[in-house]
Amino acid sequence: WERFLSSPILFLARLLYTVHYSATNSISTRSGTRDPSQQHIRLVCISDTHSTHVAQPLLPDGEILIHAGDLTHSGTPTELEDALRWLSAQPHPVKIFIAGNHDAALANPSERDELLRAYPQLIYLEDESITVNVRGRELRIYGSPRTPKHGSWPFQYPRVRASLATNSDVWSSIPPATDILITHGPPLSHLDRNGSGCAALMDALWRVRPRVHVFGHMHVGRGVERVVWGRVQKAYEDICRGGSYMALARLVWWAAVERVRGLRRDTAE
Questions:
Q1: How many CB atoms lie within 10 A of CB 68?
Q2: Which residues contact 154 (CB under 8 A, 6 or more apart)?
């Protein structure tokens, strides 16, 4: 009730978006088929272990292990060495990680280089891309530790207002052909719970449209979300930027249209 009173439009938009998202996933699960000739790759994605790695349960098997930052609590070289030792011991053929705002030693070039030399099995990405070959498929992966400014942590940039996000070049270095994007923080309106995600990152996602986006940082927003690059998605995000009741009406309309189309496809199949 308090959330509704604080922002009725946003409350209703999130409720409708959640219902629509659940229904879309249900239809997709029933009607979707896999091409048996395609080589599937399993990603194991974790984040924000904060020096608790030894207490974590065994990780699932997979071809690629991704850690989206905050391996440590205080970011000392000793903490990082312990976390990287654990990460490098995992059985996954490809192990990729980025820093988070708690991993301070990785922001110091000399300390970072010394740590990385000790663990050549690990791939560290800091505002850069790499191409890996897994099961005969090439995947382009980009990783960045950057998050909007909050306190005096490393790897931060000035927060860009949602209305100005399209004019921001914070995320302009992400290549357009990226298959997997790894960032420490979330985009605005997606698994960020309290609206702390980055609007500029959300815009970059529309430009790049990666197959998978892995992130952490907002502990209360953990989970998985399936996104469809369509009008419902755009209408919902416009409301999260501060849209009006007219934007909410557009969301209702396009959600109804996509729901009917999805049911028709499901019936036809």
A1: 26
A2: 75, 99, 101, 103, 104, 106, 107
The 3-state DSSP class for residue 189 equals coil
**What backbone torsions phi and psi does residue 71 show, to the nearest 5 degrees?**
-70, -25
Amino acid at the residue 114: E
Q: Are strands 147-148 and 137-144 parallel, antiparallel or unpaired?
A: unpaired
Specify which residues 157 forms β-bridges with: 148
The DSSP 8-state label assigned to residue 63 in this structure reads: S
- In this structure, how many other beta carbons lie within 10 angstroms of the beta carbon of residue 49? 21
Other Cβ atoms within 10 Å of 208 Cβ, number: 17
What does the pLDDT profile of the chain (269 residues) look like in tens digits?
566 667 788 888 888 888 877 765 544 444 444 555 567 899 999 999 999 999 999 999 999 999 999 999 999 999 999 999 999 999 999 999 999 999 999 999 999 999 999 999 999 999 999 999 999 999 999 999 999 998 899 999 988 765 555 556 889 999 999 999 999 999 998 898 777 899 999 999 999 999 999 999 998 888 898 888 888 888 888 888 887 888 889 889 888 888 777 655 555 55
Cα distances (angstroms) measured from residue 125 to each of 8, 30, 100, 106, 189: 40, 37, 11, 11, 25
Is residue 103 within 8 Å of residue 85, measured between CB atoms?
no
Q: Do the strands 122-124 and 94-97 form a parallel or antiparallel pair, or are they unpaired?
A: parallel
Q: What whole-number distance in Å separates Cα of residue 66 and Cα of residue 75?
A: 19
> Comparing C-alpha atoms, which of 194, 261, 226 is closest to residue 18?
226
The reported pTM is: 0.86
Distance CA(68)–CA(45), nearest Å, equals 8
